Amino acid sequence: MTQFNDTELTAAVIKSFEETPNPRAKFLLQELVKSLHDYVRKTDLTFEEWDYAIDFLTRTGQKCTDIRQEFILLSDVLGVSMLVDAVNHRDRDGATETTVLGPFYVGEHKVTPHGTDVSANLAGERMFVQSRVTDLKGRPLAGVPVDIWHADDAGFYDSQKANFATEGASSRARFITDADGRFYFRTILPCSYPIPTDGPVGQMITQTNRHPMRPAHVHFLVNAKGHEPLITHVFIEGDKYIDSDVVFGVKDELIAKVERRSDPVMPDGKPADGPWHLMTYEFHVKPGGGLAPAPLGTKVPEHA
Fold first, then answer.
1. CA 281, 191, 68 angle in degrees (round to 5)?
2. Radius of gyration over alpha carbons of the chain, in Å?
3. Position 301 confidence tier, pLDDT thresholds 50, 70, 90
4. Phi-psi region for residue 28, left (φ > 0), alpha (ψ -120 to 50) or beta?
5. Which of 229, 291, 243, 237 is nearest to 98 (CA)?
6. Does residue 238 carry a pLDDT above 70?
7. Which residues are registered as beta bridge partners of 270?
8. pLDDT, tens digit, for every residue of 113-142?
9. How far is residue 149 from each of residues 18, 85, 104, 111, 193, measured CA to CA in Å?
10. In this structure, are strands 259-261 and 193-194 parallel, antiparallel, or unpaired?
């Protein structure tokens, strides 16, 4: 009978994947084994610690639903999401910077007319968002679908609420850019908010004395034909958590100055009910291809 010590075992497990038909899958699995086995050796991992890790991952999976992805949240707070983003977007060539998708993207929505108040049913300081999508030469891109979503004035996304299935989307919509590449909408001023702390990821953050806060932002997914999908946020300048985002998602280029205004009308010519805020941001997309993220629960095609 073959017997293994702690180094021979690693070699044997790596060899066990030698016949994997897909070369990329083979490479990824073998590298995973190397890294995981090295971690166990370097830390002298105990049975109790490994049991705890398995239980933690089990509870993480059990917390996932059709509208909540605890594993994405785990990836985010460990910086893995931003690291994967970084290695896949090393050369921006002037394109807008990318950042994490986050765990509350729930897929496409019906197209919403420009100027719609996507947070009409919510309390909060009103905000007008005006934006434009161009290529890297500054030429406007028309007919581009742009998904937007953000948290409410209390720091919750619509999909976190019990009535989401019956009430539908709030502070979440899809717009199509006009002939000049523009889109605009009304909403409320986002606030900084904590990631969900009612699951195992939140417990880990609390137990390690990290704060759970994200700086105020609006999510954007720009999906122009013939260009790479752009997943990003626009952050509010001056937010107290801008330099300590719990998911490490802030980049300088993605911080927007949001102006407080008192004009009686907003940029679309319609009246304002009182003081309001103006966010202006222009997105530049890179030629290429790729698939926009699939909604949670959608089967992703296997690698060829």
1. 95
2. 22
3. very low
4. alpha
5. 229
6. yes
7. none
8. 999 999 998 999 999 999 999 999 999 999
9. 44, 20, 9, 13, 14
10. unpaired
What the block records as the tokens of 171 is: 């502070």
Distance CA 272, CA 22 (A): 58
Joined tokens for residue 148: 């937007």
Least confident of 101-115, 158-172, 220-234: 158-172
- Output the six-digit token pair for 229: 């999908």
Distance CA 46, CA 61 (A): 23
What is the Cα–Cα distance from 108 to 71, expressed in whole angstroms?
21
| Residue 234 near residue 283, CB atoms below 8 Å | no
Q: What is the dihedral of CA 100, 104, 108, 111, to 10 degrees?
A: -100
Residue recorded with tokens 């690291």: 83
Q: What angle do CA 133, 230, 31 make, to 5 degrees?
A: 165
Residue 5 dihedral angles phi and psi, to the nearest 5°: -95, -175
Q: Which helix (H) or strand (E) holds 151?
A: none
Residue 265, SS3 per DSSP = strand
CA dist 205 and 197 (Å) reads 8
Identify the H or E element spanning 139.
none
Report the DSSP beta bridge partners of residue 111.
174
Residue 31: pLDDT over 80: yes
DSSP state of 166: H
The residues, ordered by sequence, that sit 6+ positions from 114 with a Cβ below 8 Å of its Cβ are: 175, 178, 182, 183, 184, 185, 268
Any idea of the CA torsion for 270, 273, 279, 280, to the nearest 10 degrees? Answer: 20
Distance CA 74, CA 97 (A): 22
Residue 155's φ and ψ, nearest 5 degrees, are 90, 15
Residue 63 CB partners (closer than 8 Å, separation 6+)? 70, 199, 200
